[in-house]
Specification:
The protein has 286 residues and is of the alpha+beta class. 31% of the residues lie in helices and 29% in strands. A hairpin with a 2-residue loop joins strand 10 and strand 11. 35% of the residues are buried.
Length: 286
Amino acid sequence: MSEIAYLNGEFLPLDKAHVSVLDRGFIFGDGVYEVIPVYSRRPFRLPEHLRRLQHSLDAIRLANPMTDAEWTRLIHDLVGRHAGEDQSIYLQVTRGVARRDHAFPVEARQTVFMMSSPLATPARELIDNGVACITATDYRWLKCDVKSVSLVGNCLLRQSAAEAGAAEVVLFRDGYLTEASASNVFAVRNGKLLAPPKNHLILPGITYDVVLELAAACAIPIELREIPEQEVRSADELWVTSSTKEVLAVVTLDGRPIATGKPGPVFRRVHQAFQEFKRKVMRQAA
Ligand code: PDD
């Protein structure tokens, strides 16, 4: 039996959920999305995800089809219809169905779609040994703070990583670190945690915020600033973060080791703090 999805006001089996070929999400990639992890049946940082959704909708000038209370109710409903304790909720809002014309349709209703998948957190081996990454020029558009479904740039970049047997591709724009194809990136130098500031060049990651909060709680000095490529390549530690990867150490970049080529001590502290924080959230859910 197919799992249950949500489409435009109704819950239905995922394989029965269909949208028109004229949907602007299909024709133009004209829509936005969120990926929300669920731990022990509790959506993680839901208000923050809904705030970022509102930011993305505002950026593409699309009205939010629901209030936060309605989103929250529907997301809990969807979680309740799935057996897994840990889930990954994908939600997407597009500008709806209209005759093909680049300019916005006058009368179209947003398409709202949600589905749940089992949340696959990183395998122990990846946490213990770290991951390989490659690098590339960040050739995406200048609104990377918008979680847009127009992801062909990210897909091309991620495919280059997959073909190189790497977990991610770390991106540089004009010689400075931005992020990775589907993750934020942090560096550690001389005991200090460095991250590019939130601006139009990176997605404001929910995990990025969690990692900064946990680092502050661990009394790790933090510096949010532009990071030149050379400082990334010669970093003591390099990490990637996302809702599905949580926090992972990058141990090689373009085949060359980052420092010792092993996950570093600052990573281990923050990773442990992340796991404890998750357990606390789970206990609250119980
Ligand atoms: N991607 N940067 C980009 C380009 C991303 O696509 C993502 C997440 C992140 C990390 O954001 P967060 O911590 O909120 O997950 C940064 C999701 C997981 C995806 O597209 O599947």
